[in-house]
Amino acid sequence: MVTVQEAAASFARARVDAGNSEAAQWPEHEQRRGWRWQVALVVCLLGFWDGFPFSIFGASMVFSYQLYSAIVFAGFILYIVRALIPTLAVGWWEGVSLLLFCWCVLVSFHWSVFVQPQPLLAWLPAIFTVGPVLTIFLLKAVGATRRDAESGLYYAGAFGSLLVAVHVALGLHFLDNYARGSAFTEGRIVFFKLQAVFGLMVGLMRTAQARHPLNTLAHAFASVLMCYNVFVLTESRQLILAVFLALVPIWAFALRGQTRIIIGMVAPFIVIPLGIYAVNKYLPNFSSMSDYLGQDISTQYRVIEDQHFHHVFDLSSGMGFGFMSGDPKYNNVLTFASQSAGFLYGTGKYGVGLVDIGLVSALYQFGYIGFLLVVGMTLTCVIRLVTATRFGQDYASTSALGYMMAALMLNPIAVNYYTLFYSAHIGALLWFIASQVRAEQALAVKAT
């Protein structure tokens, strides 16, 4: 098993040789062969949080989410055991994650016991919804590395994009559970979209840095699949905008030397057609951005959702309403939002949801303290990731993930990476990667 110490020692040797040869800085994933089971674990976790593969067999997606959190909780116990022996160093990154998790539990207890009392089964089992924040404990307990996490994210994005491409091309039905409506298309398949957009960043870096033609073709093919998923199938204007926002700093700061020059010459022939396609498809019939914001139904409805949850938040004394079951048999904030609120606002069965209000959901659901923790973790993670590349091109993919993470924060609806069900699995993985960057760099300094 490759430890952080071994990875850091390898990195330190690469830094010593960096001034002599550009080849010395080529990523280790191009130098080392073999498959680590920790990569498979990351792929499985990212699949479970999307309900895959159990959903294609008719099983409830909730089971898959619960399985993810059960694995994470088991990893947390393993981490505690290893820390007590001790065979594992405890870091502040884990402490911050545990603090956020405990705060989420405390907020939920406060609301469901004192503010709007409900049975224990109506809220405590929903603890799995914040389980991903403890993912760092699992991955550190099993000896996963930064490269394992990045590779797992890359393979998950490519695999999910391949599946959805096959599903659409052959007219199959095994992913019909993931059909969603939008302002542009009814019944589009939204599958592994966050895995795809972040996996795309890794894929682009690996394509740019690959030394062998076959590796270049393989990474390019995977990147094309993920582009297809993001630009054509998901129809998420925010993700598409974020990709364009992230590409400029990635090219300017994450790449070096001849690679940056070559990519700078080739990129316009790819980026410009993609931009034209996105504008023609997603901004038709709107003469200006003000017209767009005024006419777009989804934009208008998000305002309604924000107002709805703000009203609930006002009842919590600034603590938020926490997590709770979404089962219709319980009468609580979330079941009303999903089952009945639509009739209140004139949209029928289409209810309101936290997923549509992004970062603000951390405030409404977990209060001022929860919001500050989420914002602080996000800023820390972004800074650690985007500055990683100064230590060598082995960190180019890591830096690219940071720029993508930052780009999604600059969107009209900033992403909540740590407490929102929609994106918590990605945020947890990025938090782990950032922690490993810090550990590798600290050990590399000692090694030199």
Return the domain count. Answer: 1
Largest sheet: 2 strands, antiparallel
The count of DSSP E runs of length 2 or more, i.e. the number of strands, is: 2
> Structural class from helices and strands?
mainly alpha
Spatial sequence of strands, sheet with the most strands: 1-2
The ordered string of helix (H) and strand (E) elements is: HHHHHHEEHHHHHHHHHHHH
Shape: globular
Number of helices: 18
Describe the 3D structure:
The protein has 18 helices and two strands. The protein is mostly helical and 448 residues long. The chain has one domain (4-282, 301-447). It has a two-stranded antiparallel sheet. Mean pLDDT is 86; it is low at 8-33 and 285-294.
List keywords for this structure.
448 residues; two-stranded antiparallel ribbon; 18 helices; mainly alpha; globular
Topology:
Layout (H helix, E strand, L loop, with lengths): L3 H14 L19 H12 L12 H24 L7 H24 L19 H7 L4 H24 L9 E2 L7 E2 L3 H17 L3 H21 L3 H18 L2 H10 L1 H15 L6 H7 L1 H17 L19 H7 L1 H4 L15 H27 L9 H14 L14 H24 L1
Antiparallel strand pairs: 1-2
Helix pairs in contact: 1-18, 2-6, 3-5, 4-16, 5-18, 6-7, 6-8, 6-18, 7-8, 7-17, 9-17, 13-16, 16-17, 16-18
Short description:
Helix content is 64%, strand content 1%.
